[in-house]
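Figure caption, in words: inputs first, then the predicted bound structure.
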Amino acid sequence: MRAPICVPSSIFSFLDVIYSISMDLFLIAAICFFIFLIAIFGFWIIFFLSYWTFFFGAGLNIAPKKIIRKMLKLAELRKGEILYDLGCGNGRILILGAKEFEAHGIGIEISPFCYLWSKFNVINNSLSGKVKIKFGNFFKTPISDADVITIFLSNRANKKLIPKFKKELKSGTRIVSYYWQIPGMIPEKVDKKAKIYMYRM
Ligand SMILES: C[S@@+](CC[C@H](N)C(=O)[O-])C[C@H]1O[C@@H](n2cnc3c(N)ncnc32)[C@H](O)[C@@H]1O
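Bound structure (S-adenosylmethionine present):
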């Protein structure tokens, strides 16, 4: 009869250690991979939420407060006037217009994400009575009661808006565009450094 093979117990504990280390490594690798997937998809989700509206006029880009103040000053926005922001983003222009210039604001926004964001900001600032946010395409929404219109869009969208402005706006309505000029229209006032252009119908 053969004698049973004796395996030293230290070998088992060595294998145990290797096994537990490789399980830990596997778990760490799985977690890293999961984080990597979230980062990649998160980036594309945020990118998509922000920029798909480019095809309708412009992607999301929020104008700085300093610029907004300059835009509304250049337009000489007065108390009680109706201010439209075409593509209102997070509603910042309208909120500042209502708070600092006592204007009534109307925002038009095509992105559900930005629509809800600006709605939330309006409610959060207790301005529901003064600022309205409409969900829709500004090319298809009436704007004839505007005294002042703000736009921060694109060269292409500004150009496409000209027939609408000519058809709907009353004489004297001020249009303030940040960053992009309105091709074919001559601005009444320009802040070259801030890239703000004010037009009067
Ligand atoms: C560059 S952002 C400007 C946001 C805001 N007006 C500001 O200056 O902070 C342009 C906004 O216009 C919206 N937008 C683009 N095309 C639109 C359209 N046809 N109708 C309504 N909103 C539109 C986008 O969703 C985006 O929120």
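The chain has five helices and seven strands.
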